[in-house]
Amino acid sequence: MRSIIIYLQFLICFSVYSQDSVVVYFSFNSDEILAQKIKMIQKKLTKEATTVLKISGYTDSIGNFYFNQDLSERRAKKIKVLLDESIPQLLTNVQVQGNGELPISGQKGRKVVIYYNKKISNQIRTAQVGEQIKINNLNFEPGEAILLPGSEPSLTDLLSIMQEIPKLKIAIEGHICCDVNDITNLSEQRAKVVYNYLVKNGIKENRLTFKGFGATKPIYALPEANEFQQVSNRRVEIRIISKD
């Protein structure tokens, strides 16, 4: 029963963070990793990620429960330390935890899973016309259209792909959480912050539109059950209008 509960917890974590992830496998009863492996992970995250969300360690089901719990924590912390050496800017708000053993044996259980937000530029390159993409790591002061520190990399990445694809046109769409009434039109104000940033940096206005939808298009039904659902609903998305 204990193994089943742990496995269900893993599935829940995966469903929350499954947007993008990379897995690092370990040898039996070890928290050591080859330098070549970590360099490959660092290279991948530098290319693809705007921020690392979570580092979760696991073990197989062989051995003592308490030893496995400790080992899973050591594996996760080891990856955090190694990534901090080269890409600390991606790990400013990362969660690091050991989740103990999975009810499986072999390499598939001996791992660390690194969950991250993918750069919006990479998503746009493969997106279809009409597709909506959330701008990850774009955060505002509560109740305000004022960007929090740390949001700049996401905007810079969006600007770079707008410059790279001159015929790309997008709609910028703002959403809020928690309250069905957007009296101050905050959702549109936040969308306009992104619009103004792009225009200020040379993107022509005829390639952009912006609009606020309040809380009329929530990902999770109102009232939200927890903070995660509130954060998910409180977002700015872009919709691909045309690419060529």
Topology of this structure?
Blueprint: H1 2-17, E1 21-25, H2 35-48, E2 49-59, H3 65-84, E3 95-101, E4 111-118, H4 120-126, E5 132-134, H5 152-164, E6 169-175, H6 186-200, E7 208-212, H7 227-233, E8 235-242
Parallel strand pairs: 2-3, 6-7
Antiparallel strand pairs: 1-4, 2-4, 5-8, 6-8
Helix pairs in contact: 4-5
Question: CATH homologous superfamily name of the largest domain?
Answer: OmpA-like domain
CATH architecture of the largest domain, by name, is 2-Layer Sandwich
Uncertain residue ranges:
1-18
What is the CATH first-level class name of the largest domain?
Answer: Alpha Beta
| Secondary-structure element order, N to C | HEHEHEEHEHEHEHE
- The domain tally reads 2
- Shape, per Cα inertia axes: elongated
Main sheet record: 4 strands, mixed
The overall pLDDT, averaged over residues, is 89
Intertermini distance: 55 Å
- Helix-and-strand structural type: alpha/beta
Fraction in helix: 25-40%
Q: Output the CATH topology of the largest domain.
A: 60s Ribosomal Protein L30, Chain: A
Share of residues in strands: 15-25%
Strand order of the largest sheet: 1-4-2-3
